[in-house]
Each structure stands twice: as C-alpha cells, then as structure tokens.
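Usage

Read records sequentially. Each one opens with the input sequence:
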Amino acid sequence: MRYEGTVYRPPSEARSLVIQATIGCPHNACAFCCMYRDKKFRARAVADIEEDMDMALAAYGSGVRTIFLADGNAAVLSTDRLVAIGEAAQARFPHLERITMYGSAKFLVKKTQDEWRRLAAAGFKRIHSGLESGDAETLAALNKGVTPEEAVAAYAHLLEADVELSVYLMVGVAGRERWRAHAIGSAAVLNQAPPHFIRLRTFVPMPQTPWHDHWRTGALHLLTAHEALEETRLLVTHLEGPSMLLSDHVSNFLDVQGRLPEDKADILAALDDALQWPITAFRPPTEKLVGLGL
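and closes with the structure output:
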C-alpha cells in the first residue's frame, strides 16, 4: 500500500482497508484541526487507487469486508469518480460490505439524492461527518464552514437517500464558557436529522492550531472529567433519537453507549454513577494529553 503523510481514520474503521483517494482536506481550515495542514489537497487518479487495491488483494486476499477512503472529506470527489472507485473495489473484493469516507455537511449537499443513491449502489453505505458542535457561536468560531441550520439540511439530505450517517461531537470543545449552549445546540441539530450513529470524542488541543492558542491564552478553559460528564449528561437529556450513541475514542473520560431513546435512562444512570467517582478514577486531565496526537 502507498500512503502520503500521516493517514487518519475513524476508530470504528480499525479493521477496514484504508486507501487514500484524496491527499489532504479541501476545507482544511477548522480551528481545532492540524491533521492535514502539511498537505495540499488533491485527488488521486483512479488508476493509482486501483493499483493500491491490487496490492491489497495480493497482500490480504479477497476477503476484505470494509474500506475507508482517506484523507479528509473524500466525499468532495465527483460522483463518477467515486462510482468508478466503488465498482473497482467490488470487482476485487466480492465480500465487501461497505465503503466509508469522511464528508462534512459543507460537502454532503453538493451531491443530489440521486447521486447519493448511485454511490450507495456502488458500495458507499456510510458517511462519517464531524459536526463538532451544534451551537452557532461555537461552530462559527471553529470555522467548520456551516451553520447549525445548514448541518441539519445536509444531514437530512443524506439520510433521505438511505445512506448511513455517523456524526461526531467534541465534548468540551466550547470549554466552560459555552458548555451548556454546546450541549443543547448539538442535541437540537441531531434531533432534527437523527443520524444512525452519534460518536463522542473529547476535545484535546492540537498544537499549532487557533483553538490550541485559544486555550493557551486563557480564553478557553478545558473541562475536568466531572464537567465533561455533566456536559454529556445535558446532551443525552435533550437527545431524542433514534440514534446509537457511542463514545468509542480513547480521549473520552467514560465509555457511554446505548440506543436512543430506548436506553436513555440507563445512560443517564451510568453518568450519574460516574459523577460520584473521585477524579483519580478517570484518565489524566486533558491538558496532560496535549501533543500526544489523540
């Protein structure tokens, strides 16, 4: 396999074959992210991607079941290009169950529902999308390129095409300053267009990003374990579903999971229980994780 630079994938794609369809991210301006700052965005040729698939076929055999297309926001590629990639993958891996990729709300609406249905037929069954926050002020400061209303419209657009949606929220990204608005606003977005999966990860400042500087200058205060759980509790209280809530990331203080709304009472009870634990029962404070590449 051939990769350029550091390659990132969602935790849930740990068993997936990772293939770079793009280099870098077409937006590449989020205030909290530095993952693609050293890369100039470009699309790789389909022929090169097919060669990578042939290498994977030789190395792993035809039993590959899931593929993740890196880098950031591969959903920006044209429908025809993605269909060609999907068909090439299906031809080589007859047991393939799904192809997934990152796609922010900014790019999801650029394809029609008919295009998304074509992509689903070509194997693209799930999209990973970072909402980060549903609070308008926080979202604007993070420079995601969309408003909460635009995120709702984009997610509804994709869901109507029967493509699975996995949405990511950053616990603590609004700091102590706006944690309530962050939790309530995020729930409001997700209730209007309930994704199949809601995945939590706790904000850890990335060096050389504006949001890291925001923290270092004292404009943003990181949450303690108990404060992060209080924020999560407020989020869950307002979430209606139907969605599967997961916290499958090493950055989190507590593994919170369950189906909403069926498991809401159990999730809240688990959070209430953990709120009674001593601070030493949790992972180290978030500031201790800065620079570890989480």
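Summary fields computed downstream for this record:
- The first helix runs from residue 46 to 60.
- Residues 76 and 107 are 6 Å apart (CA to CA).
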